[in-house]
Amino acid sequence: MRGWKLWTCVFHFMLFGLIAERALAGPPLTTIQDVIYKADGTRFNGVAYIEWKSFETPNQVPIATQSLTIAIVDGNLKVRLVPTTNSSTGGYYYVRYHSDGRIQFSEMWAVPPSSASINLSTVRAAAAQQNGGGVLAPASVTIGEIPGLTEELAARPVRGLGYAANRAIRTGTTGALEAVSGNLTDCVRVDGTSAPCESGGGSYTGPGFVDGETPAGLVNGANTVFSLSSQPSPALSLELYRNGVYLTQGVDYSLSANSITMLAGATPVSGDILTARYRTAAAGNPTSAAGGALTGNYPNPQIAAGVISNANISSVAGIVESKLSLNFPTHTSANDPNAGEKAALSGTAGVPSAANKYVTTSDGRLSDARTPLAHPLLSVHHSDTTAATVARGDLIVGQGPSASWTKLGLGSAGRCLTSNGVDAIWNTCLYTGFQPGAIPFINASGMLSENIFQLGWDGANRRLSIGSSLADATANIHDQAGTTGLLVRAGTAQGSAPLSRWQNPSGVDLATVQADGTMTGLALQVSPTVARAPWRDSGLSVDPTSRVDGDSWYNSAAKARKTHQAGQTHTSSQVICAEEGLTNSTTSAQVIAACALPPGFLQAGDRIEVMVDAQQVGALVPWNLRVQWGSTELMQRTLGAGDTSLAVRGQATLHTGGTTLSTQHFNGTGATLTSIVPASDPYQAGLSLLVSGWLNSTGAGANVVVRNLTVIRHPAQGN
């Protein structure tokens, strides 16, 4: 018995040990690492949301449903995940890439087991080969997230209130799909209406009968309009029943064509049954709405307005006026000549008088045998002229105390016809009528003109305005309708004389623009905006040959700003990055700080200074920090649970053959490590400096955080 108990204890102890070993071992991970680009060749920046449903690893370790967010900095994606392709229960990762405030694209991953890093094409290809079982259902996607779906749905017709199954479909007045009403044996017209089909090639002309028809329309206590398949003819032939009770036309409902409108108190409610019985017009005669040159409804359409004009009626049409009902008289005799006037028109009768003006020279009683006498305009035959002989350029003007029309000879060249207050004379040209402040000029037609709104002089305030009438400064140049510009051009004998000068009231120069373009002044004040920097120097690829202390310029080849002091040229250090990083609370290595060095920026002879300050906060657990210069590891260090901070100080020395990296990193207890390694990354093509951090094990509130990443460039300079 005692042996049995001992064996039981040993068995339980071994079983507990196996369970504990399985729990502590953890599943193996596969590293997925790649660089993601956009279509324009730039690198993708954003985050990747990775989701999965629960599955089991080959050694039966359960992986719970969860999600993970990975930052993608300068295109660099790196994440460690449990493999799914060898899972006994199947499994997928659903990945959504988010950037610029929206989801850009999504994809499915099937991760194979691998001890080496794999790229995205491997996990995507593996996902495409899977069929069935374990596929992760994508997260819910709204219509708005699918480009173009909203517009496509809006362009498609929808069901209307009159939609019904097993019926021909027509488009209603709103464009919605509705069922065609009518008997099953009726024919459907192109306008969507229905009527009994003609038989025998249209030979049937007798009236039709409809029995037991259910009017189309919703029976719900709110709808009051119902339609019949045909138009009752005559209208009083319609017999309408509600639940077998006869309804009276005009009291319970009204009828218009084939439309029934229920009146107050007779609206059918849900469950009611409507039944109609009526006669229709002869099958060969139309009963629908008229069209073309007609308007209204058959069988009594009318001629549409404006379709018949004079062109439609023959000039010899046999329509007498007595058959036309005129809305206004076509003729009035109020202005007709009387009998005597009509006779006078032919010159045979009538007595000319003030009232009878209808006489002509054909009347034998009238004669005009006088022959006009030819004479000059200024002749004795006119009592209001002074006789004279005409000459080229003469004018006729009223002159003299008695004011007669008198010849005025042509004046000499360049003279103008003016008034002396009494007579018109040739005199020196005088221009009057200009507005105060106007500056006359010769316009496009060669005439003297003015434009006080575009060119003016304020004599009282001594102000000249060009292009406007503002006159708010001694000289105001402002083309309100075009482009304002001021051009000062040196003369051929300019020499060293300034192009422009600004002086104080004492005549002392405050600022000048020299002949060589140099601007000199006491001070320079600029006002930057969010759209424009206050100072821009396009720079040269070489340093200026003439330099004095205090000069500053930008060297575009060195990508550096330079100054000159104490007879030497010096470059200015550049802060490339100085920012707080992110945090990571997982055991997967994640980039939590990054700094991009663009292509063509770094030069041989440059020195890059790198400073990283990191901490482990929350529950104290062992943690790791790694700094990479492109693909070359600058440093990596694992710290114990008691080491809560780490400072990294490193530099990259750039030379023609490559890069030399040196680093020193020390924790809070004073443990210092140093290293010097070469880097093969071509710095001329640009690269990223990446800081990754992760925990060895998770804990309550445990995080790795980068407090600051600072990268400073000291450009090359020789003296």
Structure report:
This protein is mostly beta strands. It has 4 helices and 47 strands. Among the domains are: 25-139, Immunoglobulin-like; 169-300, no CATH class; 441-475, no CATH class; 574-714, Jelly Rolls. The strands form 16 sheets. Strands 37, 38, 40, 43, 44, 45 and 47 form a 7-stranded antiparallel β-sheet that branches. Strand 32 and strand 33 form a beta hairpin. The longest helix has 24 residues, at 2-25. It is flat and about 145 Å long. The two termini are 95 Å apart. The model is unreliable at 126-139 and 200-204 (pLDDT under 50).
List keywords for this structure.
seven-stranded antiparallel β-sheet; four-stranded antiparallel β-sheet; 4 helices; mainly beta; 719 residues
Question: Can you summarize this structure?
Answer:
By secondary structure, the chain is mainly beta. The protein contains four helices and 47 strands.
CATH class of the domain at 574-714: Mainly Beta
The Rg value, from CA coordinates, equals 52 Å
Strand content: 25-35%
CATH architecture assignment name of the domain at 574-714: Sandwich
Share in helix:
under 10%
Could you list the spans in which at least 5 consecutive residues all have pLDDT below 50? Answer: 126-139, 200-204
Do you know the CATH topology of the domain at 574-714? Jelly Rolls
Shape: flat
Structural class: mainly beta
Number of strands: 47
Biggest β-sheet, characterized?
7 strands, antiparallel
Number of helices: 4
Mean pLDDT across every amino acid position: 84
